[in-house]
TrEMBL record, chain A:
Superkingdom in the source lineage: Bacteria
UniProt-recorded name of the protein: DUF934 domain-containing protein
Pfam families noted in UniProt: DUF934
InterPro entries: UCP030820 (IPR008318)
Classification lineage: Bacteria, Pseudomonadati, Pseudomonadota, Alphaproteobacteria, Acetobacterales
TrEMBL record, chain B:
Keyword presence, 4Fe-4S: yes
Protein name per its UniProtKB record: Nitrite/sulfite reductase
Source organism of this protein record: Komagataeibacter xylinus (Gluconacetobacter xylinus)
Top-level taxon of origin: Bacteria
Coiled coil: none
Limits of the Nitrite/sulphite reductase 4Fe-4S domain: 130-283, 423-558
GO terms for MF: 4 iron, 4 sulfur cluster binding; heme binding; metal ion binding; oxidoreductase activity
Nitrite/Sulfite reductase ferredoxin-like domain ranges (all copies): 63-120, 358-408
Protein family according to the UniProt entry: Belongs to the nitrite and sulfite reductase 4Fe-4S domain family.
Keyword tags: 4Fe-4S, Heme, Iron, Iron-sulfur, Metal-binding, Oxidoreductase
Length: 163, 562
């Protein structure tokens, strides 16, 4: 599955840290247990971290100024903890970098991912990108605020989802 | 459409073009999902949460579609559409549920997108009637009508409906999540048996404030909800609920579905620690983003139609005269009505529990009749109750007898509300894939056994709740007499609990002894009730006698027949 951003395929410039091997030079995503090692690299090298769904994102607070990416994981699409992690990163920790959803979220969850602050999706699922694109287009109205601060519609809490 | 020209249906929120577009998009999305399922692009495992989020269950014999009736309110036009769906896509009937919804038991998957489209045509949907999300918010069936009400809870119920609908963060929770809201000091919503129970009342400045209960529920582990906070200001309602559900989403168990409800988390952490987590989340939220402004509340309130309560000055006298002239009518008024805030009006409860009938089942013709009667007598407004009955909220007192004559003529005039015949029962093994035993035959036998209205009225207030398995959809823990179906080596047995209540005197019923075989259960309950009639003090209800004397006095009656 290619990397998706706003319903479109985008280039992935990030490398994943490989277990048991030294970190590469360029942009790299490290697992949480190798975060210290990542932070010890030269400050110019882009650094991302991948966390599991049981992590309280507050532990990232000291590292966030150095992080350009946080990957949150959906071990199954039923496990919605990463939605809360993404929102907490945006709302409580004011993280402005890339939030990447990994694992197996459903295309039908795409709007939820975006509205919780996820910016890119790299899923292990096999769907055609078109299914994700369609899921992105099909809903244009929501009934509650989100981290995207969509344009209010006027009545109550309704807002239009910008595409 | 401008808000000025829209007609406002009495008692419920008026959709406009944006609301309609939203529902239509969901129908289109589900049609596409069904297509992917049929084509094999989605596995059943993947499709399941998607269909559940549109109210579609796979039951023992067929698909079951649960249609949302937000906070139990609907209009006659909507009821007629439900009748049409019952006739066209089901076997001519529907079933009112304890969640104030209606479900159809014999639906074909391929028909479901069309049914949803028809529902969308009358501003209805089946979104979030199932699945691990915030379910249909329930509310007092006498909301906006009851004399004892402090505040009409429907406005906030609608705000919660909107807020929770496809909530991006809370649509894949550890388990289902149920919210009830009351605006009366008399709890008619079982607030302490919900994941969140809200009791609204006016604050010092006249704006609503909310007492918040959390972590109640029935099921395998019945727990009475604890009060999380008092007097939550209206403007913080959504922020605070966000904080509660966010803590639940982050920390609720996901390893075991039977331990995944918020009640287990609250018990595991203890209420103090749970409250600390909620308060910490609440404190760091940008509350401005979630503030429920009075303008939003008033904007929603303005979308609700208000009945024009205008009755002749002698309406109450006319009703008194009608009651004196007809003893059967008088009995029905005693049992099946509720005091209205306007002296010329009354709320009428239509019993969907005919003698020997299936609790909550209603035929397409009865749905049409109820719709007609709602138009003729109650501003086209219909309420579904958590007791599986129907309420016409605002009936002029001088016209009540006309309403009763028409109900009675159609077999809908059973005078048993709050009495032994007003039984809550889950669908049980006749329909449900989870059940261990049949609930419906026991309900029917009990209802037939106590059909005599004089006997029922003599017995007085008594709630019998029947569940076909420990998941407790029939709320047996909350019944004065609870009946739980259990399976013993392939045979149906029934375990009795006594002393439960979902009202202000909230309590969980206690098991009184070994389960009984099916053919002994009804007799045992009859002996139990006879014992109560002997032991009671003047004016004492069953639950009061039970609480005064304890289980021992009743145990002999159940297990040692004379």
């Amino acid at each position: 599955m290619p990397l998706l951003e706003n319903g479109h395929v985008t280039e992935d410039r990030w490398a994943q840290a490989t277990a048991g091997e030294a970190l590469p030079d360029g942009a790299v995503i490290v697992p949480l247990e190798r975060l210290e090692e990542g932070l010890a690299r030269p400050k110019a090298a882009p650094l991302g971290v991948a966390i599991g769904p049981d992590v309280d994102v507050a532990v990232l607070r000291p590292a966030l100024p150095r992080l350009a990416l946080v990957a949150v994981n959906f071990p199954t699409f039923r496990d919605g903890r990463a939605f809360t992690q993404a929102r907490a990163l945006r709302e409580h920790l004011s993280f402005t970098g890339e939030i990447r959803a990994t694992g197996t979220p459903l295309p039908d969850q795409y709007e939820f991912l975006l509205r919780c602050g996820v910016t890119t999706v790299q899923t292990d699922r096999a769907e055609d990108v078109a299914v994700w694109q369609q899921a992105h287009e099909i809903i244009s109205i929501a009934y509650q605020p989100s981290v995207l601060h969509e344009r209010p519609q006027g009545l109550g809490l309704r807002r239009f989802l910008g595409k | 459409m401008s808000t000025d020209t829209v007609t406002r249906p009495v008692g419920r929120y008026a959709y406009d073009e944006v609301d309609r577009t939203f529902v239509s998009q969901r129908v289109a999305q589900f049609r596409e999902q069904v297509g992917r399922r049929v084509a094999g692009d989605l596995t059943e495992d993947e499709f399941k949460p998607l269909r559940l989020m549109n109210g579609l269950y796979l039951q023992l014999h067929a698909y079951m579609l649960r249609v949302a009736v937000p906070y139990g309110m609907m209009g006659s036009d909507q009821m007629r559409e439900l009748a049409h769906i019952a006739r066209t896509y089901d076997r001519d009937y529907g079933h009112f549920t304890t969640r104030q919804n209606i479900q159809f038991n014999w639906i074909r998957l391929e028909d479901t997108p069309d049914i949803l489209e028809r529902l969308a045509g009358v501003n209805m949907h089946a979104i979030q009637t199932s699945g691990n999300c915030i379910r249909n918010v329930t509310c007092d069936e006498f909301a906006g009508a009851a004399a004892d009400e402090l505040l009409d809870p429907r406005i906030h119920a609608e705000i919660l409906r909107q807020w929770s609908t496809l909530h991006p963060e809370f649509s894949f929770l550890p388990r289902k999540f149920k919210i009830a809201i009351s605006g009366s000091p008399h709890d008619r919503v079982a607030a302490r048996f919900h994941d969140i129970g809200l009791v609204a009342h006016p604050g010092p400045d006249g704006r609503p404030v909310f007492d918040v209960f959390v972590g109640g529920g029935l099921g395998r582990t019945p727990i009475i909800g604890v009060k999380l906070r008092d007097n939550l200001p209206e403007e913080d309602l959504l922020a605070y609920l966000e904080a509660v559900v966010r803590v639940y989403n982050a920390y609720g168990r996901r390893d075991n579905m039977y331990k995944a409800r918020i009640k287990i988390l609250v018990q595991a952490l203890g209420v103090e620690q749970f409250r600390e987590k909620v308060d910490a989340e609440f404190a760091q939220m940008n509350r401005a983003d979630y503030r429920l402004e009075p303008a939003i509340v008033e904007g929603i309130r303005a979308r609700f139609g208000i009945p024009d309560l205008d009755a002749p000055a002698d309406a109450a006298q006319k009703l008194e005269a009608d009651r004196k002239a007809d003893a059967r009518f008088d009995r029905w008024v005693r049992t099946n009505t509720h005091t209205h805030r306007h002296e010329g009006f009354i709320s009428a409860v239509v019993s969907i529990k005919p003698d020997g009938g299936i609790p909550g089942d209603v035929t397409a013709d009865q749905m049409d009749l109820i719709a007609d009667l709602a138009d003729a007598f109650s501003f086209g407004e219909i309420r579904v109750t958590h007791m599986q009955n129907v309420v016409l909220g605002h009936v002029r007192k001088d016209r009540l007898r006309d309403l009763w004559l028409r109900l009675d003529g159609a077999g809908l005039g059973t005078p048993n509300i709050g009495l032994v015949g007003d039984i809550i029962a889950c669908p049980g093994l006749d329909y449900c894939a989870l059940a261990n035993a049949r609930s419906i035959p026991i309900a029917q036998k009990l209802s037939a056994r106590f059909a005599n209205p004089e006997l029922q009225e003599n017995i007085g207030n008594l709630r019998i709740n029947i569940s076909g398995c420990i998941n407790a959809c029939g709320h047996h823990h909350a019944g004065h007499i609870g009946i739980l179906g259990v399976d013993k080596r392939g045979e149906e047995f029934f375990q009795l609990t006594l002393g439960g209540s979902a009202e202000n005197d909230v309590a969980i019923g206690q098991i009184i002894g070994p389960a009984l075989p099916e053919d002994e259960t009804v007799d045992a309950i009859a002996r139990l009730i006879d014992t109560y009639l002997v032991l009671r003090h003047e004016g004492e209800a069953f639950i009061e006698t039970y609480r005064r004397l304890g289980a021992a006095s009743f145990k002999d009656a159940v297990y040692a027949p004379a």
